[in-house]
Design goal:
heterodimer; A: alpha/beta; Peroxisomal Thiolase, Chain A, domain 1; three-stranded mixed sheet; B: alpha/beta; ten-stranded mixed sheet
């Protein structure tokens, strides 16, 4: 069988970790502020979204997630030879954020470190690159971090979902890993569905164009390519997690591909934390690893506007269970919450312009 | 005499993968195939937003070369939302004057290449740019004012007016060229987000791209689908604020009187109206005296304009509300649909045994109105 020879099989996930800020704002609160009718957010399948505090940004959240991932991996951080930081909300336009994380975890100085940009799938591209670095023997471990404090123009429908959160994964040899990669596929085209121009504070989107020609076409393209490559069918997977910009799109793309809602249930976190952009599908993957049984197969398909999608197949190993208790789970973060008002949210997200003399 | 010998329709939708050239080519090819002709003397292009949205001027040559008919005589007609029917009027004049014996009419418009705020900014230019559009009253704003006035003057409740969009959605379900092919209830119309109170989102047309084409001939060698018995028009105010009686579409009334003078309307079995908003459909029914003033909404709610309802069947295509409204192309869709009805070949809700039909197309709230009467030839 050709899939037995897939080079991805030499790599696996050694540690996973997330960080979700404690603050939440409800959809009803945002709708009340802007005068949206309730069905506007109900149609998105959303309840609440996570809001980063005033002292948090994509690097602080990315670091928290990385520390959790390293705890689960149980490795010496100096063995990490590559740090990939995927974000679309980095605090510095010029100056790497990956070095902040690499330094803070103790991976510097003998490591690669770079920021990746591809809307919501930058970290996922880092994951596929990490598989290559690890299986080729160039590095022992690679750290992939997806973290965002997603921006949305106040009053735009995007504001219902754009949230904050991070996920991190330590990728290493399949030996001793909690989940082994079986294969991967990437599907990209030049599709301008969502963008932010230089100097513009908030992203713009092509409304309906973000759906069929972008999100759906690319995820379907990546997943079908993977299934064909591996000779697998949707029913061969115990879990599937797709990029989740809202609560509805992942269910719809799952249905289009032939997955059942039960397969998507564990990985679907956006309804209660919002779309964490680079963390979106990856926090879902982390939650699946929090629950999955050894031998279960997982499909992961992040998506980034612009546009592209990756699809990965992973098989969970026996090691998963001993790693779980070493760090807080996704649910620990989901349940630890403080619900805030729109005015506090506006203050935390720097939406109120304060003139400092 | 002018006859329709071929029609070509593209389903109204957000055609992200096609430009106006591709859409026009698809419709024109289908129309030429269905009329079994490959040569035409003249092309009349109908489009309104393309000048702003593409943006492209000289659409006459642009579309002619796009559909592989470079060298043909061509002229473009722009009359806002009524461009399509204005183009049909031009085609009829061309064949009846003897200038041409076979004319291809191509209507095309595309709105989904821009974010909706920009599309609506362009659409606001259908109104007087020094008054209504300048003050950003917008399409929905004018229709909302008319709807409120209608409810106040005639003591009609909002739910009664919600039967119009529900009927349009029901009619569109079987139309393969319609954009919105699902049912809605009148109650759902009231629950939809307000656009300009009391008008809600479900009282309005969806933004969609489309192209439609017709072959018009003076003396067809083969069988025709229908005869274009007469087309008439009149201009009105560009702003409803200037109208003496905003609940009567003055330009349509004049165009209709001119039409009746020009031809005998033996039988009106099917009508395709310009229901850009619920209130426009209702006011048109009353202006055409198909319903008493203040009574059209109630008649719609009681099923008078549905199949088997006693009156002519109104908008079996689903109308602008549900078939969709690719602005400058819409009038061409309407004429093609009525021609297919009269030939007994409409692929959606077919009005059995239809002998005659009206097409009404207007710009804005009636800054110009066009009306056509089509007659069966079978």
């Amino acid at each position: 069988m050709a899939s037995m020879l897939a080079p991805e099989r030499g790599a696996g996930i050694h540690g996973w970790g997330v960080y979700i800020p404690r603050y939440r704002i409800s959809m009803a609160e945002i709708a009340r502020e802007w005068g949206w009718p309730d069905h506007q957010w109900k149609a998105l399948g959303m309840v609440e979204k996570a809001v980063a505090g005033p002292d948090e940004d994509s690097t602080t959240m990315g670091l928290e997630a990385s520390l959790n991932a390293i705890k689960r991996a149980g490795i010496n951080p100096s063995d990490i030879g590559a740090v990939f930081f995927g974000t679309e909300s980095k605090p510095y336009a010029v100056k790497p954020s990956a070095t902040i994380i690499a330094e803070a975890i103790g991976a510097t100085p003998l490591t690669m470190a770079s920021d990746l940009e591809f809307a919501c799938r930058a970290a996922s591209e880092g994951m596929r690159a990490s598989i290559g670095l690890v299986t080729s023997g160039i590095v022992k471990y690679a750290l992939v971090v997806g973290s965002d404090t997603a921006q949305a123009n106040p009053g735009d429908v995007l504001e219902f979902t754009a949230s904050s959160g991070a996920a991190a994964f330590v990728i290493g040899s399949s030996q001793g890993s909690a989940a082994v990669f079986e294969g991967s596929s990437t599907y990209v085209t030049d599709t301008p569905d969502f963008w932010r121009r230089e100097g513009s504070p908030y992203p713009r989107h092509g409304e309906g164009f973000t759906g069929e020609p972008a999100y759906f076409a690319h995820i379907v393209g990546a997943v079908r390519s993977l299934l064909e490559k591996l000779g697998l069918r949707p029913s061969d997977f115990n879990h599937a997690v797709f990029h989740q910009p809202n609560g509805k799109f992942p269910l719809k793309v799952g249905e289009m591909l032939g997955f059942k809602p039960e397969q998507l249930k564990v990985g679907l976190v956006t309804p209660v934390i919002g779309n964490t952009y680079n963390g979106s599908a990856l926090i879902g993957l982390a939650r699946i690893l929090d629950y999955a049984k050894p031998g279960e197969r997982i499909l992961v398909a992040p998506f980034g506007s612009g546009a592209g999608s990756d699809a990965y197949s992973l098989v969970v190993t026996d090691v998963v269970e001993e790693k779980r208790g070493r760090a807080p789970t996704v649910d620990d973060y989901i349940n630890d919450k403080i619900v805030i008002s729109y005015s506090l949210y506006a203050k935390f997200r720097d939406l109120i312009r304060v003139v400092k003399e | 005499m002018a006859y329709i010998t071929g029609v070509g329709l593209v389903n109204v939708d957000r055609h992200y993968d096609k430009g106006i050239r591709g859409l026009a080519f698809e419709a024109a090819s289908k129309a030429l195939d269905s009329s079994m002709s490959s040569e035409v003397d003249f092309i009349v292009v109908a489009s309104s937003l393309s000048y702003l949205q593409e943006p492209q001027l000289d659409l006459a040559s642009y579309i002619a070369s796009s559909i592989g008919l470079r060298g043909a005589r061509s002229i473009a007609v722009e009359s806002g939302e009524a461009s399509g029917l204005a183009a049909v009027m031009t085609a009829k004049t061309l064949v009846e004057s003897g200038v041409a014996s076979r004319v291809l009419v191509v209507g095309v418009d595309k709105v989904s290449d821009h974010p909706s705020w920009r599309a609506y900014k362009h659409l606001s230019m259908l109104y007087d740019t020094e008054s209504d559009a300048f003050y950003s009253i917008g399409l929905g704003g004018v229709a909302g004012l008319l709807m409120r006035l209608y409810m106040h003057v005639y003591k009609v409740d909002r739910l009664t007016l919600a039967y119009w969009p529900a009927l349009m959605h029901s009619n569109a379900k079987k139309n393969p060229y319609a954009m919105l092919r699902f049912s809605i209830t009148p109650e759902k119309v009231l629950e939809a987000p307000p656009v300009a109170e009391p008008l809600t989102l479900l009282d309005t047309f969806p933004l969609g791209d489309g192209a439609a084409a017709l072959v018009v001939e003076g003396s067809p060698s083969r069988g025709a689908l229908a005869e274009i018995a007469a087309v008439e028009s009149a201009t009105g105010y560009q702003s409803v604020a200037l109208s003496d009686d905003p609940l009567k579409i003055e330009s349509l009334e004049v165009a209709y009187m001119r039409l009746v003078e020009r031809t005998t309307l033996e039988s009106i079995d099917v009508v395709e109206l310009h229901d850009s908003f619920t209130i426009m459909g209702v006011l048109e029914l009353e202006t055409l005296r198909l319903a008493e003033r203040g009574k059209a909404a109630e008649a719609v709610a009681q099923g008078y304009f549905s199949v088997g309802g006693g009156g002519p069947v109104v908008n079996p295509s689903g109308g602008l509300k549900a078939r969709g409204h690719p602005i400058g192309a819409t009038g061409v869709y309407q004429v093609a649909e009525v021609a297919l009805q009269l030939a007994g070949e409409f692929p959606g809700l077919q009005v059995e045994g239809a002998k005659g039909g009206l097409v009404v197309s207007l710009n804005a709230a009636g800054s110009s109105s066009y009306i056509a009467y089509l007659r069966s030839v079978r």
